Amino acid sequence: MGNAFAVVEFTCSININGGDKYKILNDGNLIPAVAYGTWADDVSGLPKVIQSVIHAIEVGFRHLDTAHVYGNERLIGEALSLMFRRGIVSREEMFITTKLDAAVSCRKKVVPSLKGNLKRLRLDYVDLFLIHVPENVFNYSKFDILDIWKGMEDCKSLGLARSIGVSNFNSSHINRMLRYAKIRPAVNQIEVNPTRTNLNIVAYCQSEGIVVMGYAPFGFLVPRPSSNITGIPPTFEDPILIRMARKYGKETSQINLRYQVNRGIIPIPRSQNITHISSNVDLFDFSLTQKEVYAINEFNRNLPVYAAPGDEVIAVYRAAYESLLSLSNKYY
Questions:
Q1: Which of 33, 119, 127, 140 is an S-S bond match for 105, by CB 3.0 to 4.6 Å?
Q2: What is residue 56's three-state secondary structure?
């Protein structure tokens, strides 16, 4: 009974100077309820990363999401150092999430890999460190995700990561980890949006006290050049979203992000448009009703923007890795 209560307690939103701006992870650490996504679809977006991150912090983002494979950690480190020197924010005010290099094949390589992340980010620790994908991306002959998780636990024990978690894990992956791991994952980062609501895995994670972070929160509301899928509702002009936006005096984009906050999900919007960045963090002076959340759930088509778990994830990650290897030292 006590454990069940702890799950409820640790996954709730709490009131810290602004409604539900923070959540409590199952290890007791606080995590901001919206994150600024820093991945650029191609390397042409990298030169804008520093200014975009600076603007995101200036307008109120306190959570940045990045990864080894994004190739932008060095740029984010520059932006953070600048903001710290200027006194705009302190290190303690910022929550930084990054992810393990999928080329890491065993426990003993995890801590050295994270130290590489930290060097690029110019940080002594990250707030959240995630296994990026559960799959054996590079077909190692000996590969066990539980062995890698032990390396993640080492990172937390050494204070190099305040919290540890996973990304793109399904319920079977997590169930195996919960059975054998010493430390429960605090977070599972997956794709969540109106056309891919992922109701089952979200419910499963939340029942286990694991907070869900949602990437690609706009789904097919925005153009997806890498996909041949078009014309999938909703759009930003959808009557249902417009009705809600008028009711709350918000943009339909904000309705979409607030929908995910209402579901207990931490959305990760990404944009290099300063107007959009500002509106994407302005989510905490209103709340949708349960019926409005259900109405947006009805758009679900189980259509992934990026990839479904399995071979598709491996293909996407390998493509991103090839892009990373093509970067010059100027960015990486």
A1: 140
A2: helix
Catalytic residue among 22, 36, 70, 321: 70
The CATH number linked to 35 is 3.20.20.100
Could you list the residue range(s) of the whole structural domain that residue 89 is in?
2-298
Q: Is 204 a catalytic residue?
A: no
Preceding omega of 134 cis (within 30 degrees of 0): no
Q: Who contacts 47 (Cβ-Cβ below 8 Å, separation ≥6)?
A: 331
Distance in angstroms (rounded) separating the CA atoms of residues 323 and 327 = 7
Q: How far apart are CA 330 and CA 65, in angstroms?
A: 21
Residue type, 10: F
- Into how many domains does the chain fold? 1
Amino acid at the residue 70: Y
Instruction: Check residue 320 and give its pLDDT.
Output: 75
Residue 136 confidence (pLDDT) above 50: yes
Q: What confidence tens digit (pLDDT) does each residue in 35-58 have?
A: 999 987 666 667 789 999 999 999
